[in-house]
From TrEMBL:
GO cellular component, one term: mitochondrial inner membrane
PANTHER family with a match to the protein in the record: MITOCHONDRIAL DICARBOXYLATE CARRIER-RELATED
Compartments (UniProt record): Mitochondrion inner membrane
Domain of life: Eukaryota
Name of one Pfam family that matches: Mito_carr
Protein name per its UniProtKB record: Mitochondrial 2-oxoglutarate/malate carrier protein
Start and stop residues of the Solcar repeats: 1-76, 83-174, 183-272
Entry membrane topology: Multi-pass membrane protein
Family: Belongs to the mitochondrial carrier (TC 2.A.29) family.
Species the sequence originates in: Acyrthosiphon pisum (Pea aphid)
Signal sequence coordinates: none
Location, primary (coarse class): mitochondrion
Keywords: Membrane, Mitochondrion, Mitochondrion inner membrane, Repeat, Transmembrane, Transmembrane helix, Transport
Amino acid sequence: MGSAVFVHPLEVLKFRMQLSGEKGTASDHKNSFHAIINMAKNEKLSGFYKGITANFMRQIVFTSTRVGCYTSLIDELKKRGQGTVINNAIASMSTGALAAFISTPTDIAVVRMTADGRLPAESRRNYKGVFDALIKIRKDEGITGLWRGTVATILRAMTANLTQLMSYDEAKVYMMENYNMENGLKLHTVSSMISGIVYSVCSNPMDVLKTRIQQQKIVDGKAEYSGIIEVATTLVKSEGVMALWKGWPFYYLRVAPGTVLLFIFMEQLRKGYEDNFIKDQ
């Protein structure tokens, strides 16, 4: 949640760019810089923080689960002497999938609330907050509507966990062994930046597909897309393969500092917990 406070505006811009030019329509923005100018002009500063309550809830459910479960599993594997690359990869993907499944409703709320400002006034959903969004989605689209795009969300989370958490751990070990860096703030920052690059490049395509599925309109009970395959083929045919990396600059700018802040906050909170509770036991 601490990380989200700083990077949420980039999350909003990322979603706007990912949805721009959908199905070959005219793009909302010429480029990333133009997107910033348009939002600042039309939606003021508050527009950059639309959906922040949903993002907070998503962090509580998704990030806590994926990072917490991953760390616990990795620690247990190390104790048993089974901390191999394959086992670590399985642990990271399985915990990512679990976290994604239980947090999909909050993920949909984030996408819809952050993207609402780009729609015509008559088409906006105008959710008042995360709980209002979840209640209305349940009412208008049924319980399955809260898990729309689950496959794409799970695949993205598995990719994210595999690339972000494992690359962070591997980068820490590499920097300590080859550059004699101590386990402190400098090491955490460098490792996080390396992790952010790997994570953003690998997971951006699934993030674009997930955003398109979760933002789609439901007309007379029928969705625009039947599933992730149709979204992917439609996107590639109408916008080209590189459209899978739409919004990448904002995605990376969100991921890089977001990853740094996430791991710095996590390491400091863990250190504080260990110093004040574990050592006393």
